Amino acid sequence: MNAPLAPAPVLDVAGDFPILQRPLRGRRLAYLDNGATTQKPASVIRAISDYYEHANANIHRGVHFLSQHATDLYDEARRGVQQFINASRAEEIVFTSGTTQAINLVAYSWGRDNLHPGDEIVLTELEHHSNIVPWQLIAKQTGAVIKVAPVMDSGEIDLEAYHALLSDKTRLVGMVHISNALGVINPVNTMIQAARRVGAAVLVDGAQAVAHQPVDVQALDCDFYVFSAHKLYGPTGMGALYARYDVLNAMGPWQGGGDMIHTVSFQESTYAPVPQRFEAGTPNIAGAVGMHAAIRYVKEIGLDRIAQHETQLLAYATDQLAAVPGLTIIGHHAPRAGIVSFVLDGIHPHDLGTILDAEGVAIRAGHHCAMPLMTRFGIPGTARASLALYNTEADITALIGALDKAQELFGTGHHA
Q1: Average pLDDT estimate for 2-14
Q2: What CATH architecture applies to the domain 45-300?
Q3: Which one, of 353, 309, 391, 388, lies nearest residue 29 by Cα?
């Protein structure tokens, strides 16, 4: 059987990423662990360095030039995020340390005031632990109950079962936009509309979505949307929460400290307007600058072009992997973006990841912080190859060659 022809690349941007020029154990690095974190273009690295070299100061506190300059950069970054996801106003963007902190913020600030005994939280079987554990913690505090929409064998949410879970008891629906474990794209528009009909608030985990496709939070009509900079070619320790202004403005603070207050006395404190109310202490100013630079980078290339490139490469990778004897792609029949998650007969995913690393191929192996999903499929974990705009068919060729090597070492067969 002839292997399918490699797609003509839509993008050729690997040269923008300094780390991809670094040989790994004497080999060209094939970095296919972008679902965990993406590499950073030189423009983002420079923006962070420039901030520390030319603008470093605390914000919202000083009247001197550097403080004003740093504040301007921070505020520009907020507007950049607003425009990137089409929020209606900059005040709807809260800077966080990432998706995990953003979900915890919503769980504690919104959840403590709006969830009561017997109220129901509906999640899906595709969720990352970050969109499970915070709701478990808040459910114990409030007496709310968690319901779970199941996943079918295809990897898709069982929409019939999802609709059946929704009722007048549903107070919040939490859903992942694109699964980090399988790459499955949820039909979030349909799911949000259904949640709206029963009066539920909706949180969408967009950590895996914003780097792969355009996101319009107003069109989605969700209450909350969360994502991390480090999966968007930006720095670690930085992310954003979008919340509808009326919802956010009604929420009380979840952390106390400097910059989130209006007045403080030992008897009582009053709080700053949104979004400062939720940004206690000195924020990650350099992280905001870096995230803004990453947003500018992907916007200059164009998310539509990025999606086209990754869609072609995903189809090519899927065809190549499907031809490997004993390999099973999990979620193969569902709409996917940027991720191929698979198991290989006779080789544990962790062993596979180690062998591939020796061949210069970086993937993720394990449960991907989605243990309930792995349990549903009856597997301990998967090997996950996740794509980014700088990946090419050469990376897929290296992956297939490394899988051949693994099968040779384990005596489990050879690639056809």
Answers
A1: 71
A2: 3-Layer(aba) Sandwich (3.40)
A3: 391
DSSP string of 44-93, one letter each residue: HHHHHHHHHHHT---SSS--SHHHHHHHHHHHHHHHHHHHHHT-SSGGGE
User: What residues are annotated to the active site?
Assistant: 369
Q: Where are the domains of the chain?
A: 14-41+302-410, 45-300
Give Cα 240 to chain centroid, integer Å. Answer: 11
> Under a CB-based contact definition with an 8 Å cutoff, are residues 285 and 78 in contact?
no
What pLDDT score was predicted for residue 7?
59
CB-based contacts of 391: which residues, under 8 Å, 6+ apart? 31, 32, 34, 310, 313
pLDDT score of 334 more than 50: yes
- Class in CATH terms, 14-41+302-410: alpha beta
SS3 category, 114: helix
CA–CA dist 149, 161 (Å, integer):
6
Q: Hey, which bits of 244-319 come out as E strands?
A: 261-264, 269-271
Q: Is the pLDDT of residue 241 over 50?
A: yes
pLDDT beyond 50 at 1:
no
- pLDDT score of 81: 98
